[in-house]
Write a structure and sequence with these properties.
Elements (H helix, E strand, L loop, with lengths): L3 E3 L9 E4 L2 E4 L3 E7 L9 E10 L5 E9 L10 E2 L6 E5 L7 E11 L2 E11 L7 E8 L3 E3 L3 E9 L6 E8 L14 E5 L7 E10 L5 E12 L3 H10 L21 H8 L26 H7 L21 H12 L5
Parallel strand pairs: 12-17
Antiparallel strand pairs: 1-4, 2-3, 4-5, 5-8, 6-9, 7-8, 9-10, 11-13, 13-15, 14-16, 16-17
Helix pairs in contact: 1-4
Length: about 325
Amino acid sequence: MRGSIKRGPLVLAALSLSCGPATVTVTPPKVSITLDNDTPNEGDRVTFRANVSGGSGGDIAYKWEQTAPKDDGKNPVGLFSSALTQETQWTVPSLCADQEFEFKLTVKQGNTTVFSTTTLSAVNMDQPFAVTQAAASTKTTVTSGDEIILSTQAVAPGCGPTFTWTQLSGAAVAFTDGIANQATARWRSPAVGAPATFTFSVKVDSPDGATQTSGVITLAVNPATFDNVKATFADRCSDCHQGTKPAQGLDLSSTMNSVLQTNLSGIATDTVKCGTTDSKFIVPGNPDESVIWRRVSGTGGNGCNAMPNGDSGYFKARPEALIQFQSWILAGATF
């Protein structure tokens, strides 16, 4: 069916804002989802569009998700071309049988959050084994710490094909989600001190024993720059590293690169060297001898508390920021 509209239940949040004696009523927007095809075949691309009207105004943010079947490494999972735009395309994965899929759209406007859901019924096509989309990457050039999505598509009779992703060259890095046997795989670029090239391939196997290679992906990874790490200083580090007596004598509150360069060229004032030789905050080209790397990575040893102080899990939740710190130092810590 073409041009169908499906509306899901709306869940509203933050209906009013209190500001002194006055109360400002916030009107949530009306949200619905339009699909250009709600009975696609496997391998088809379906266009999803968010329809938003009314509301109290403000910037709108979108998030698309496939909610059923669950992504457990066995169920068929499609791929959105972009999960954060008003209009996106979703590719029907390979199927063993006809399959119903459920989706959720989250729309945030100002202080309100609205949810809408929709479904579609995908048709299993008992087609001859073939790779229908060569291996591709969401980006071909990235910076250390960036995550990419590798993807391919194939059809096969019966229960569909199986996929095996392999990194062919470059320092070995595990796939982000530990899954490398689906049509899509996620991979986060490592810390490099100089431009580096990584290549990947995917082998596609049919249930009847036939095998095809879906091409080779080449990815260029560049070192992180000071601009990449500077945002972290402002977001988290300057809370303690500022004022007349900043922690360890290191002031990170300035927005000027020249001032930060001078400050980061110093030596930690406390007695804990964090496993380094001479307590320098930054040793260009050598993260392991840099106090700041030892601190943020939690590799400084006894008495060298992981930073940020009181929030040692900050960088574990932001692996891209940690990789950027390491890459920037490896590349010479230039400002």
